[in-house]
Each structure stands twice: as C-alpha cells, then as structure tokens.
Amino acid sequence: MRFFVALEIPEENKKQFQQIQINLQNLLPKIRLTDLEKIHLTLAFIGEQPDHLKDNLASVIKQAAYGIPNFEVTPAYIDGFPNIHHPQNLWVGVKGDIDKILLIRERVKDGLEILHLPVDERRFIPHVTIAKFNNHIRIYRKLEVELEKIMTMLFDPIKISSIKLFESIPSGDFHKHNTLAEVRLL
Description:
Layout (H helix, E strand, L loop, with lengths): L1 E7 L2 H17 L4 E2 L6 E9 L5 H12 L5 E11 L7 E8 L1 H17 L12 E6 L8 H10 L7 E3 L1 E10 L2 E11 L2
Antiparallel strand pairs: 1-3, 1-8, 2-6, 4-5, 4-7, 5-6, 8-9
Helix pairs in contact: 1-4, 2-3
C-alpha cells in the first residue's frame, strides 16, 4: 500500500479553495487543478509499504494526536515548490495554530522512525496543494502580485478535528485516496 498521514479539509472549506483555484486558472489557463475531494494538509508521506503496517501506522497517528485539542488554521498565502518563481506546484500556506500541526508532525516522524520507516527531513511547511504544472513555468513579479491579490479575500478558519491515515491508489494519471484510519482530537 502507498500510505500518507494528513489533515483533511472539511467540506465547508472546500468552496473557498475552489474559488482560489478558479482565480488561479484565470491567471494560468494551463494549470492542472487538484481535485477538491483530495485536498488535504499532508503531515507525512510514507510511500509504498507492506499492507500489514496499517495497524502500526494507525497506532502512530493515535499517539501523535494524544492530548491535542481541536484547532483552527486559516488560508494565508500562495507559494510554490520548489519556489514561487519556478513552481512545479502551487499551494496555500496556512496561519493560526501552526504549533499544533508542527507537534503532530514531529510525533508522526518519531513514530515512523521507531518503525524504521523513511522520514522526510526537508523543512516542513504546513500547506494545501491546489495545482500542478505539466511544464516548467516562470512566475514573474507581476504575476506574483496577482497571486497575492487572490489571497486578500476573507477566509473561514479550517477546523481540524482529526488526523487520518490514507491509502493512495493509482488510477490513470491520478490517485484515489481511501481513509484507512482516523483519530479524533480532543
């Protein structure tokens, strides 16, 4: 199975992400938008691992959630990986209770290390991927200013109430996501 751990975006917040995507597509018509049903905030991509690890991974997210109450984050800015000027994908960064996301992320990493699973050591930036590019693109300052304008709308806070273990199943050029385990926060 191909596993990842994430915070799911509630249905009530998806319309705002859809509006961001519509605005993006008006600026960048060749952009490939992330399916709204699949948007999430990834905490750890685990990758292809034996199916029998599912229960161990569910235990990892249970331990990561221990003592953490529900919290909120709010969409704040658009950026890209590897950077905003030469992005392969665009994402929305969040503000708010980031400390809780970082704590959960560290606990998940610790749990993966105990299981001797690979851990991504790159700097973690809490974000929601909203679009990808098929070809390399260069974003100049004028376009960057337009991206900043998209994020001036008022956003509702995203209520985070659980951590989920997902399975990613290839389906043509895309992936389906199945929830394998969910741990509710306090």
